[in-house]
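Quick illustration for those who missed Monday's session on complexes.
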Amino acid sequence: MESIIRVMRKNKLGIYDFHCHVLPGMDDGCRSVEESIQVMEESLKQGVCAIMATPHYYPRETVESFIIRRKAAYDRLSEKLNENKIRVPMLNLGAEVAWHNGLIYEERLEELCFGKSDYMLLEMPFTKWSSSVLSDVRKLLNMRNIRVIIAHFERYLKIQDKKMIESLLDMDVMIQMNGEYILGFWTQRKAAKMLRNGVVQLLGSDAHNMVQRLPNLGEACRKMSQMGLGDVLMDIQETSVEIFQESIYGSGD
Ligand SMILES: [Fe+2]
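Prediction with fe (ii) ion bound:
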């Protein structure tokens, strides 16, 4: 039987990584251009065709200064890649935006969305959510018209009450899962259940470098196909293609 990865490759459905700290010197991810290239080359080797760079955005700086830093990091990386003609996955720019008080009033927030799209990766607090946190998510969706993607959803499950999780899932948000949850010995069954139930729309490696939190999305996708989740993987890849294209060309409306 043909492997799902080969079918995906044939149909040009490569793996899309929507959560990656690949830009050099931006956060606790890659520290140098060389490290960024290693992460990108390893991702390509695993079948990743596109990476959304999502450095942490914290309110200790303005969106404006973050964007200037991010462009400088991207330019340094692109220069090296072009200079040496290195083959790597496609790259576009986003951010992992940490929820904080006042986030919904932040100026130029839309510029933290993935490229030209209105999709934004949101990191929820790692403390118990109050109703105002959820109300802010609602306002991001309805007031700012941002399409919210909840970063590594699985990481909040242990901390939050079931009711809070359900309220979040009742909203029109998208859910991103990390590769490590699919690969983890103790978590893979829970991951499979969530994937099978259609909770998850996007995947990410959340890779930081080649020493800790390595690129693993190719392995995670292989694991999914071994677990009989090939059809779920195809659905995720189709959604991924649409969102990545929107990040490049805009929504067209
Ligand atoms: Fe992250």
